[in-house]
Amino acid sequence: MMIMHPAVTRRSIFRRRQVFHFAWWLVRRVALAACFSMPDPHLRHEQQAGKGKNKKDRLQTSHLLNIGAAAFRCKCGDMAQIACRKRLDCLGTGPIAHPLSWVGIMSKKTSKPQKLRARLPRGFVDRSPDDIRATDMMVAKIREVYERYGFDPVETPMFEYTDALGKFLPDADRPNEGVFSLTDDDDQWMSLRYDLTAPLARHVAENINEIQLPYRTYRNGWVFRNEKPGPGRFRQFMQFDADTVGAPGVQADAEMCMMMADVMEALGIARGDYVIRVNNRKVLDGVMEAIGLGGDENSERRLMVLRAIDKLDRLGTRGVERLLGDGRIDESGDFTLGAKLDKEQISVVTKIYETQWMSYLFAKPPGDYNEFKKNYDEMDRDDPEDLEVSITVEDLYEMIRSIWESEVQNPKSSSNFVNQLRTHNVTINKKFRDGVIELSNLAGLVEKAGYAVDRIKVDISCVRGLEYYTGMVYEAELTFPVTNEKGEKVQFGSVGGGGRYDGLVKRFTGQDVPATGFSIGVSRLMTALKNLGKLQGADVIAPVLVTVMDGDIEAMGRYQSYVQQLRQAGIRAEMYQGNWKKFGNQLKYADRRDCPIVIIQGADERNAVDEKGNATPKLQIKDMIEGRKQAAAIESNEEWRESRPGQFEISEEDLVVEVQRLLHAQKVEQDG
Fold it and tell me: What is the pLDDT of residues 233-243, one digit of tens each?
């Protein structure tokens, strides 16, 4: 056996240690480079595809790691490799033969957690206390009208089975047909309700044997639409509905229109600032048949035509013609597919709707010709210079006069009315005729009930976009001008509507169940009332604040007893819950909270005694409203501290009486 010199042995060990440290340093450097040049292998493949380096860089980094591992194995002995593996295992990185596994872990350790960004989904809004209270007051006034008409409340859940809601929304180009949907654990589709009418139909059908028909009910709640959000157009909004189920007569529709008018006036909207527009789907369907769009096979195109007509007041004749044809590109660049009507079909539709002559049939007797012509000349029409009317004003006057003499006064006879329409080249069929007769009857009913044409009028351009309407449709429209986003003066427009839906309950029962109702858009109506200056917020006084000067349990209990005394007397009150050691922050809180009064008790007030040495605890009352007035006239902080504006001392036992007196004085001064 060969024996080596001790010095040689020491040199060999030293060199081996040098090689080991060099190899370990090399592996760490390569690993560090990989952390910055390669994506985390624990990320999903699709995340790597978006965040990783290009293929060339990944290959180069992998090659460097392989070189480092190979150099480690060649330069180090077995014992060194084992020692290095132990060090890696201590780091929790796994075997060195798979360097990528521990590169990912090292990168995880060095990365910082990302903070969530607070954000609202598009089309949704947060509501302030003032908005909530104003909405509650508005809903209470609407409810009062509904109750006066003999309607009772009912409530349905926000979620319904998707097939029960049906597919009646106008936004067919949106995902899930305009609704928000999910699957239940039993694989059945559920959707958030898009209105309050479809859930009512399910409720009636499910309880048809218990419900007393006619069923008169009202509901309010949130509804949801999966549609494109925009200015003033939200995906969640509140509706307030009233419906009569089981009433087939036109008198039920007339009552809905009258109740709508009463609601507008109950909310402070004056006559002349609103109008209830009425039409009949049978008239609309008659027009569709006249242009060759009858039958179930054309149902989708009929809806596209009706929705185009519904936009007449917003887009004008030219815009509607594009929607009736190939389609239209809006201001944002989005394209809306048209109904693909030919030129002749478009001409028939636009002539009927742009002249608005049908509205005069039921508005009022034409009276004197000169007055009639003056009203006709003042009628709102789009592009009057391009208006082509197939009937002269003189002939229109004679036609309407004869119709009022024969039809409106005797609605059961329709022959003369039909002949007059045919004489003036107006296409007529049974649906059209039935719809016109129903409109005539409704006009007569509301007039006899005292609702003149300035409140309820027939307007055949009134088209509701929902598919389930089968007869009368009506819309509450505000006529006062507002300024839009472009700075233009425009009419505010619709704040609610409804109609007859005789087939909605039949989907469940298989038998005819006539129904009619309307819905008020609470959120939109609230915006309208703000524009009119009619939205009065609730007269809610901010709470009286009891400040905290000592933090021990005994003192806290005493402060809390003051709060409870005030609450039991019907006064809003709260004890300061923040850091009590900074008294200045408590006064700032009271000021920002608009607290009318602040209650203060420190050691001096708590330990106060009278001349005989008897304990007489005191309280400092700070009138925040008066204090602000007095503070405005004080120039220096020193003077403010000495004067303590609006602050005075009372006996502890007089707390409730003094606070009530001060609140009353503040209210009297505020009311003037």
Answer: 789 999 999 99
Structure tokens at 663: 């609140």
Which residue type does 363 have? A
**Three-class SS of residue 619?**
strand
Q: Helices marked H in 170-249 — which ranges?
A: 197-206
- The structure tokens listed for 618 are 């005191």
Dihedral angle, C-alpha 403, 408, 410, 414, nearest 10 °: 50
List all residues 6 or more positions away from 406 whose beta carbon is below 8 Å from its beta carbon.
413, 416, 417
Pairing of strands 274-280, 456-458: parallel
Residues 650 and 623 sit within 8 Å (Cβ to Cβ) = no
Residue carrying the six token digits 């995340």: 47
pLDDT at 76: 47
What tokens were used for 273?
A: 């600032």
The answer to whether 218 and 265 are in contact (CB under 8 A) is no
Residue 329 is classified by DSSP as E
CA Rg, the chain, in Å?
A: 39
Reported as a pLDDT band with limits 50, 70 and 90, residue 45 is: very low
Q: What is the average per-residue pLDDT within 474-482?
A: 87
DSSP code of 118? Answer: P
Distance, CA of 186 to CA of 76 (rounded, Å): 62
Return the closest-CA partner of residue 515 out of 135, 214, 308.
Answer: 214
pLDDT of residue 105 exceeding 50, the answer is no
The H or E element containing residue 490 is strand 489-500
Residue 273 pLDDT > 70: yes
Q: In what order do the strands lie in the sheet with 515-521?
A: 152-153, 215-224, 236-245, 515-521, 489-500, 472-483, 274-280, 456-458
Residue 281, amino acid: R
Q: Are 530 and 130 in contact (CB under 8 A)?
A: no
Max CA distance (Å), the chain: 139
For position 538, what pLDDT does the model report?
62
- Rounded Cα distance, 217 and 154, in Å: 6
Contact 328, 319 (CB under 8 A): yes
Distance CA 202, CA 468 (A): 14
475 strand-pairing partners = 277, 497
pLDDT one-digit tens code per residue, 599-657: 999 999 999 988 888 899 999 999 998 887 776 666 666 655 555 567 899 999 999 99
Burial bucket for residue 455 (CB in 10 Å: 0-12, 13-18, 19+): buried
**N- to C-terminal Cα separation, the chain:** 118
Q: What is the rounded CA–CA span in Å between residue 318 and residue 329?
A: 12
**Whole-angstrom Cα distance, residue 510 to residue 385?**
52
Residue with tokens 């400092």: 620
